[in-house]
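hi got a favour to ask and not much time before my train. below you get a single protein, a line of residues and a line of whole numbers that encode the local backbone shape. could you go over both lines and see whether the tokens make sense for that sequence. a few lines back from you is plenty, here it is:
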Amino acid sequence: MRAPRTLLAAANVAWACGSPPDVPAPDAVVTASPPAPDGPSVVLVTLDTTRADHLGAYGGAAATPAFDGLADRGMLFERAYSSAPLTIPSHSTILTGRFPPSHGVRDNGNYVLPDSAVTLAERFGHAGYATAAFTAAFPTSRRWGFAQGFDTFSDALVHDPVLQDWRDARPAGPVVDEAVAWLDDVDGPVFLWVHLFDAHWPYAPPEPFASRYGDRPYDGEIAYADSQLGRLLDAVAAHGPAVVAVTADHGEGLGDGGEATHGFLLHDATIRVPLVLAGPGVPEGVRGDTPVSHVDLAPTLLALAGVDDTDGLQGRSLLDGGTAEVFSEAQTGHLGMGLADLTARTTAQGRYLRGAWAGWYPYDAATGGIGMTPSPGADLAQEEDALAALEQRLGVTAADRVVPAPSDPGAAADATAALEALGYVTGDPDTPAGTLDPRDVIPYIPETWNVRRRLAMGDVAGARAALDTLAVHLPGAAIVEELEIALLGAEGRVDEQAERAWAQATWMDTAEAWRRAGEAALDAGAWEDARAAFEIALGRVPSDARSMVGLVRATLLTDGPDAAQPLVERFLGVFPDLLALQLVAGEADLTALHPGTARSRARAVLVDAPLDPWALSLLARAEWDLGRPDAAIDALDEVRREVPRDLSVRITLATWLLDVGRHAEAVRVLRPAAAELPDAADVHALLARAEAAVASEVRRSRAGAR
């Protein structure tokens, strides 16, 4: 029986951390017992996925009295822009004062802020500040490198790490509760970062905001977050003098430009963000109308606190006008789908945006924003020269996407799957860029998630119909071929799946493509091909956990447990807590006729993942080999309930039931599969055997009664 791959599918780690190419990141400043700071506290609040034009201070419909109050007594920036429309790259810029090509975090999921980066927390900590962060969601957890420099870093999530999905985010209330409690317990100036995730999809504000904003739940989420911001500001005021900065990491499309959420486009909807600054040294009641960037926050906050530690920062203090030109990029379409990447330069006059095609989008003073229709009369050559010059200053080169070993190798084995559940698309950092521009195909991108959703539900016919439609609108895109390969496997066309996966890997030559080729070869029984593919994948990304698991499985099948065991020990040395590696080690134990050890491994994994099909399957087979058929059948029946469409599970379960004389149960297990698969000869033969056994029992029972 083929082991279900739930944990294996959640195990991938493909870290890629670029090094700062334009200005070497400064070494950490080490001082012995720094003197207590005499400047104000500094509080940074990031409101995830919050559009500027929906807040009251910007004329929006959401009631935001806390944010508006800060604007009244400080500076509000009408034209603040994010460096990327994604949480992890954007927060990396906010915390380091460096643009994505410099700090190296170019997308969600495949990048971790490297240890070489110097964060605001490190700079304030070196100056004697107590530092703390309280974050609300998976994309701002410590696994992405954000804990660097913080004395306290709270990223407590609700669910077990194996089960992480979009629900693994805390509402603003508990996050603010923690921050307020910490402020009550600490003396002196602090650097505090608080992240609130509420405005992120899905929009489900609590009462009374749900009722108040019935048909506008996104605004309701913003209003709720603002109410908690007010609580935080009260606690900050009670603690002592403080500089407060509130911004968003990015906005939300809400249909503008065809984008429902964010991540793919570089229009105002997704990269224009709210930004307000208040506190000692900040002019009151000022509204700035020139472009500024998140990269300007770090030098501003350090200057207002009197901390002279600005080496390596790429921004300019907001009090001095900020940067003259804003760099932004959207790499998700490229890295996750094989589309073109987007790069933008925003100035007072408008935005030059380059993708598969270039366009100039002028600023409209009447609306206070940059429109989504390019100007036909713009001098694109001049704008391209200006963007190229900016990129040169930032050190943007094709060599930015490198894949070193992770900073914390055991921390994020399930990161990619969890981010995909949030609606993000993650991909390989070396994916070749395509010729389709996200601006041209944005209405069809959600169909890729529809295909994945249908595959996960077992709706193979629906997935095929959706993919056929998608292929018409995204011709030649790598994501279409990737989904086609997955669908071939779901349709049982495993030989064709393996052939197509190998061809795509040869063309793309990325770690992720080779890993997919290896997994397809495993499904097709091509063990040698699988091993070769996984070895190539690990040559591209040595920290790819899924390829580690795959290589062990392939080696186990080709050369046996003696050859696989050294690999298990080596990889567990890198990922000691990776559940999938523990399970593949259990597979090796079973093959080596050590079912007791395999059972122990399965039980240990089930403590952390109590319903994981692979772990239950391993436990079932170990119990069977140990001569405990009832325990084995109970465990495998749990697998059947978790993966009801896995035919191999039903066949094995029915076979075991027949072996121990539980014939009627075997019939009940097989009938649904037989009804759905009229051409599955093995299923129908086994069902006939089971029904014959039941009939024989009935005859014997009747004969005995007579």
Remarks:
- Residues 99 and 485 are 36 Å apart (CA to CA).
- Confidence is low (pLDDT under 50) at residues 2-32, 160-166, 398-426.
- The first strand starts at residue 41 and ends at 47.
- The two ends are 43 Å apart (CA to CA).
